Amino acid sequence: MTASPDLGTSRTAAPGLLRSVFRQHAAGVAVITAAGAAPVGFTATSLNSVAAEPPLISFGVGTSSSSWPVVSEAEHVGVHILGEGQRELAARFARSGADRFGPSTDWRAGPEGVPLLGGVVAWLVCRVVARVPAGDHRIVIAEVVAGDPSGGGRPLVYHQGGFTALRD
């Protein structure tokens, strides 16, 4: 029999431990967008399906993010599943201070005015139903109202601090 860790202690692990462990966890790459005075967006690896009925998704966003002020007020958000050839797009939306919606970004206004990125594997427009405080982030829960899964291709993956593709 092996000893169990003491789960009842109130010790908190350093944030670096969480980052180190999750570098080993492969995650799909999405870009979340919202419409404001100017469109905003950020790269997210925290996208999750929450429920099928009603169709709900969730993602995390840092409250210090330049996108947070718009996302904190947005009624709708766009969710874009990136393809393996979209590493630069993922990096652009992850970079602080980048011109995310500049001339090199293929995008248009979609349902509910949400900025939709072109060339993605799939996209959703979702109505925000909750913003749950979680440390220095908020977990946004949103209900799917529109989308298109027909972009095709293989997804972009984030693993060990970089963007990569699935291998067979």
How would you explain this protein's 3D organization?
- The protein has 168 residues and is mainly beta.
- It is built from three helices and twelve strands.
- It has helices spanning 15-22, 68-71, 87-94; strands at residues 27-28, 30-34, 40-44, 48-52, 55-62, 76-81, 107-109, 115-117, 122-134, 137-148, 156-159, 162-165.
- Strands 3-2-6-9-10-5-4 form a seven-stranded antiparallel β-sheet. Strands 1-11-12 form a three-stranded antiparallel β-sheet, with helices on one face.
- A hairpin with a 2-residue loop joins strand 9 and strand 10 (137-148).
- The model has no long low-confidence stretch (mean pLDDT 92).
Low-confidence stretches: none
Radius of gyration: 17 Å
- N- and C-termini, Cα separation: 38 Å
Structural class: mainly beta
Q: What portion of residues belong to β-strands?
A: 35-45%
Estimate the global geometry from the Cα principal axes.
globular
How do the helices and strands follow one another from N- to C-terminus?
Answer: HEEEEEHEHEEEEEE
Number of strands: 12
Helix content: 10-25%
Order of strands across the widest beta sheet? Answer: 3-2-6-9-10-5-4
Q: Count of helices? A: 3
Q: Secondary-structure blueprint of this entry?
A:
Layout: H1 15-22, E1 27-28, E2 30-34, E3 40-44, E4 48-52, E5 55-62, H2 68-71, E6 76-81, H3 87-94, E7 107-109, E8 115-117, E9 122-134, E10 137-148, E11 156-159, E12 162-165
Any descriptors?
168 residues; mainly beta; seven-stranded antiparallel sheet; three-stranded antiparallel sheet; 3 helices; 12 strands; 12% helix
Q: How is this structure best summarized?
A:
The chain has 168 residues and is mainly beta. It is 12% helix and 42% strand.
